Amino acid sequence: MLESLITSKTRIKLLLKFFLNSNNSAHLRGLESEFGESTNGIRLELNRFETAGLLCSHSEGNRKVYSANVNHPLFIDIQRIVHKHLGIDQLVEQVALRIGELESVFLTGAFARGQESSFLELVFVGKKVDREYLEMLINKASLFIKREIHFRLIDSDEKESILQSAGKEKFLLLWQQNN
Predict the structure, then answer these.
(1) Which fold has domain 2-68?
(2) Of 171, 32, 20, nearest in space to 104 by CA
(3) Closest CA to 170 of 24, 35, 59, 11
(4) What would the pLDDT profile of 138-156 be if each residue is shown by its tens digit?
(5) What gap in Å lies between CA 41 and CA 45, rounded to an integer?
(6) What is the mean pLDDT of residues 113-123?
(7) Angle CA(71)–CA(77)–CA(82) in degrees, nearest 5?
(8) Sequence spans of domains, the chain
(9) 168 has pLDDT over 60
(10) For domain 87-176, is the CATH number 3.30.460.10?
(11) Over residues 72-94, mean pLDDT
């Protein structure tokens, strides 16, 4: 869907990198190796985003590090578009809201790092969650969003130790139960 609106593949990769997880930051050479594209094309798109105010940058040594400008008036709208592109909004609607004692859902793996992938990796946190029912909902959601979904179900007691051992940048909170 996004490919028909935005014809630049580099621009789409940058949108995923910076607007899926607002904690992501990167420098030009890192993006070059991650995307497998020339620095000139990436630099051009970074400059466009920075001029538009969508990205901000700072220097770390001799590197210019870019990150999403979360204060930009369009930040939340762009983030929602990226979520819809990946099917995250539909996934939450199809799965998280129907499971019972679910506490939170995290996106992990390549997409949490802002990289393209053929599948979504999710971690579901809760107590007394029916695994078979969850698998059925995941399969339905996978067909609906046209993306393979890998998931892990963990008990809420395990949540903190797993998040701390993996590092926070690898887990992106998608949904949390309101108490």
Answers:
(1) Arc Repressor Mutant, subunit A (1.10.10)
(2) 171
(3) 24
(4) 888 888 778 899 999 998 8
(5) 7
(6) 85
(7) 110
(8) 2-68, 87-176
(9) no
(10) yes
(11) 85
